[in-house]
Amino acid sequence: MSTSSHDNTINDIPAHERVNGDKKEIHPDEEAIPYLNDESPNAAIEQDMGVTKIEALYLVFGNGWKLWALWGSIALISCAYALSQNTTYNYEPFATSSYGEHTILGTISVITSIMAGVAKPFIAKLADLASRPWALTFSVLFYTIGYIIVAASRSVNDVAGGQVIYTLGNTGIDFVVTILLADITSLQWRGLVTGLYSLPFIPFAFVAGEIASGISAYSANGWRWGYGMFTIMIPILIAPCIGILFWAGHRAKKVGALSLASSTYARERALTGSAPVARTMTGTCLYYARRIDAVGLLLMGFAFGCILTPFTLSSTAIGGYKNPSLIALLVVGGILFIAFCMWEWKMASHPIMPARVFNRSLICAVGINFMYYFCYYISDTYWSSWLYVVKDYSDKDYTYILNILTVGLCFFSVVGGVIQRYTHRYKYLQLVGLGFRVIGCGINYAIVNGHFTDAAIVTSKVFQSLGGGITVISSQVAVQGSVPHADMALAMAILSLWTSVGGAIGSAISASVWNRRVPEALTARIGHLYNETEIAEIFGSINVAKLTEPRAEVIAAYNEAVKPLFLAALLTSFIAVIFGCFTSNFYLGENHNDIEQKKAIRVRKEEEVRPEILAAKAKELEEKLAAEARAGQL
User: Fold this and answer.
1) What's the whole-number average pLDDT of the chain?
2) Helices of type H across 256-359
3) Within 10 Å of residue 38's Cβ, how many Cβ atoms?
4) Residue (of 390, 389, 371) closest to 379 by Cα position
5) Which one of 79, 170, 272, 388 has the fewest CB atoms closer than 10 angstroms to its CB?
6) How far is CA 28 from CA 31, 42, 227, 373, in A?
7) pLDDT of residue 611
8) Neighbour-count burial for 246-273, b at 16+ CB within 10 Å, e otherwise
9) Ramachandran region of residue 100, left (φ > 0), alpha (ψ -120 to 50) or beta?
10) DSSP letter (8 states) at residue 48
11) 3-state secondary structure 244-275
């Protein structure tokens, strides 16, 4: 279960040759559905229906057009998601500025980071309890509703509310597809396949500039169509994947492939037949509420929201941190966080962070990604706003500059995946990546200390993307490989949760510093030319700030304001390197993970997945288990 005392000697033995630390030879042609193998040290882990369904679903595809249709539909999602992320992320400063409330950007960033963190354990539980396609359908629905609200907004509150709802859907789409890819690939290919999924971000980064320019996305209302177009595109482009997954799930159940995928399901069928468990509506709601740990998710979300939001509001609240409302939020947040810890420790029947999944690989990966996102959001929550004010780029060039990081992250994640495939290791590669991130943060700090050139701006983002692409892909592989398949989605959710919390804390600190230092710097530089109301107007909109004269003084004010943020990002980036030194370095081989002996699900020949063959195998297995039950052997 939390078998993660990976000492260095055992780590050098491929997992598929090991049982409880001892070498065991496994025939290379051994059946690739060893889910009935009770010799597994994790055989006692209960496998949720969603995991069983995805393992059974892949049995019915075979090596034909159906398999290619599945991969093609995932590629469509990749393209749609990449285009969405490469464009809409850049519109948010202009959406808030159009209402004269650019300062609320930090608050939105904090809340959406918390939402993204809380959403992933929920989505993971939904994907495990129901199925991957149901979780994907749920995510698309919330994505669409959220962006409809933003596109039709009449106030900055509508923008914020829509972004929160959209975040649940957007996070879910990306997370479910990541789970799907991890479900069906071995450790040696995991990093590369995950990197390839993000590859469309690269060409669409260049298309994004043309789109932004074509719809005048940075004008007063052009951003509305920038959001609205994806409420049509995303559902249409993701629908094929959802349809294929539902079809395959129905077919797998019809031919009995669920029994072949899970010994737990087969035993239940053998003992009870196909009769479902009878529950009332209330009983059903309570059952699933316990399984997804609804109380824990709510306590955690509200706790972090109450604790971090005051940092983003302190500069605009009357009395700052002495404001009674902010004090109340901090106190309530502290109480809720304590309640969350007690609930998870003592009361939750299915906690979102069960002790069995915590191991050295997961703990170190959490530390690395927490600090990675903490550093990133400290410096980059307002980086695009700062750049827009201080540099005179066209809309197209501005979008290209903003997408350097995205392009680099996607490209270097593929490079990292290739290296992992042929070295079968990830630790030292990740340490190299963390080192490049430190260099990138150093260049970023140098920019506001006299090295204010286009070359420095581009170079800083290239180095940060080089380090980030390798770092993130390595953390994902480490976590996915350190737990059995039944716990994989939950372990991934825990990593993403604390990654998002790191980003939320970074955003909160960034918003607090930005909202205090920018008005102070503007007042010090141009306060003799503009009154307090005019200064507030300049601060409230980056469009106004960019046109304000004397321009040199405005640029100097913004550079002075962001300097401590860039320095903090540089200093804290070293902490991730420390975590990287202590992570494990297990072998990335043909297995699905480093814990179980089962290999990743392999593609079968068409004749092996004929319905009558699968149905016969399932019936034979269930009859065997039923006979054993009658004989008292179960």
Assistant:
1) 77
2) 257-261, 263-272, 281-291, 294-313, 324-342
3) 7
4) 371
5) 272
6) 9, 22, 51, 41
7) 59
8) bebbebbbebbbbbbbbbbbbbbbbeee
9) left
10) P
11) HHHHHHHHHHHHCHHHHHCHHHHHHHHHHCCC
Which pLDDT value is given to residue 220? Answer: 63
Q: What are the DSSP calls for 411-456, one per residue?
A: HHHHHHHHHHHHH---HHHHHHHHHHHHHHHHHHHHHTTT---HHH
19 beta partners: 22
Q: What angle do CA 165, 134, 488 make, to 5 degrees?
A: 90
What are 344's two structure tokens?
Answer: 């998870």
Tell which wins on pLDDT, 106 or 568.
568
Written as one string, the DSSP assignment of 524-571 is: HHHTTTS-HHHHHHHHH-HHHHHH-SSHHHHHHHHHHHHHHHHHHHHH
Cα angle for residues 308, 165, 179 (degrees, 5° grid) = 95
Instruction: Give residue 58's pLDDT.
Output: 61
- Using the 8-state DSSP alphabet, how is residue 33 labeled? -
pLDDT digits (tens, 9 = 90+) for 368-392: 999 999 999 898 888 888 898 888 8
Q: How far is CA 231 from the centre of its chain?
A: 21
> How many CA atoms, within 13 angstroms, populate the side-chain half-sphere of residue 506?
29
Q: How far apart are CA 248 and CA 254, in angstroms?
A: 10
Contact 63, 626 (CB under 8 A): no
pLDDT at 632: 57
Distance CA 511, CA 518 (A): 10
Q: Is the pLDDT of residue 316 over 70?
A: no
Spell out the domains of the chain, with CATH numbers in brackets: 53-255+353-582 (1.20.1250.20)
Q: With residue 277 as reference, give the H or E element that holds it.
A: none
Pairing of strands 22-23, 18-19: antiparallel
- Residues in CB range of 311: below 8 A, 6 or more apart: 110, 508, 509, 511, 512
For residue 217, the one-letter residue type is A
What digits encode the pLDDT tens for the residues 320-355? 667 788 888 889 988 988 998 888 888 888 887 888
**Is residue 69 scored above 90 in pLDDT?**
no
Provide CB contacts within 8 A for 542, sequence distance 6+.
93, 94, 97, 102, 385, 388, 389
Distance CA 102, CA 539 (A): 8
| Backbone CA torsion sign across 357, 362, 364, 368 | negative
Contacts of 574 (CB under 8 A, 6+ apart): 438
153 touches 182 (CB < 8 A)? no
To 10 degrees, what angle do helices 611-630 and 263-272 make?
Answer: 70
